[in-house]
Amino acid sequence: MNAIIFDLDGVLCHTDEYHYMAWKAIADELHIPFNREVNNQLRGVSRMESLKLILRNSPVCYSEQEKFLLAEKKNNIYRELLQNITSKDLADGAWTVLEKLHAVHIPMAIGSSSKNTPLIVEKLGIGKFFDAIVDGNQISHSKPDPEVFLLAAEKLHQKPSDCLVVEDAEAGVKAALNGGFLVAGIGPAKDCPNVNYPLLSLSELLAVEGHPA
Ligand code: B16
Ligand code: MG
Asked: Catalytic positions (predicted)?
């Protein structure tokens, strides 16, 4: 393994909780049942795909224009919640792990479905650790398509089989496996089928086999 590609929401930070709060506000307004279990199915899935999954539980048929406005409304609530995040909102151990891997010159990238990645990275102050950042603004196919990770590997000048993807979502694990990457699963993705490294914490990355840190 030569390089590491990190998912963002749910791996490096817990903005997944803010996604939940924003979608819950929209679902409540539309009287659609929504809970953390449904929210977990949205991990790693693009904004519009997430909305489609939520609207499956509604008897109402929404036009494309209405769906666009609902997604925009959700994003405005989400971005409002993001305004106050700082490096304190990083996942446990994330800063130390990034600092240590950076110090030993492991090429690192972010591979996220989120179009809000630039704002989140800036608020967390972690941009300096990464050689490449690929997000929802640069891709046409969302996870489980491997596009986001393939582009990240290309930017790192690495073959997929030489990169380890760190993911918290089933869609993300599938994307990585579909692209021929090694995968470390954390949180809900720890128990996904075919994960190469189930992680209880990010710091376990420092002990991954073939890793020079
Ligand atoms: P946005 P990741 C994903 O980020 C989130 O897990 C998912 O819940 C969200 O719908 C998606 O980004 C799109 O986010 O609305 O900000 O563009 O886990 O791939 O880093
Ligand atoms: Mg994620």
From this structure: 7, 9
CA separation, residue 105 to residues 97, 101, 123 (Å):
12, 6, 24
Interatomic CA distance for residues 64 and 86, integer angstroms: 35
Count the Cβ atoms, other than its own, within 10 Å of residue 96.
Answer: 13
ipTM score here? Answer: 0.95
Beta bridge partners of 35: none
How many Å lie between the centroid of ligand 1 and the Cα of residue 28? Answer: 20
Token digits of residue 7: 């998912």
- The closest alpha carbon to 94, from 131, 133, 121, 132, belongs to 121
The bridge status of strand 132-134 relative to strand 3-6 is unpaired
> For residue 212, what pLDDT is reported?
46
Could you read off the pLDDT of 80-130 as tens digits, one per residue? 999 989 999 999 999 999 999 999 999 999 999 999 999 999 999 999 999
Q: Cα of 99 to ligand 1 centre, how many Å?
A: 24
Identify the residue whose C-alpha is closest to ligand 1 atom 15.
47
Q: What is the pLDDT of residues 121-175, one digit of tens each?
A: 999 999 999 999 999 999 999 999 999 999 999 999 999 999 999 999 999 999 9
- Per-residue burial over 38-63, b if 16 or more Cβ lie within 10 Å, else e, is bbbebbbbbbeebbeebbeeeeeeee
Nearest-ligand number for the alpha carbon of 113? 1
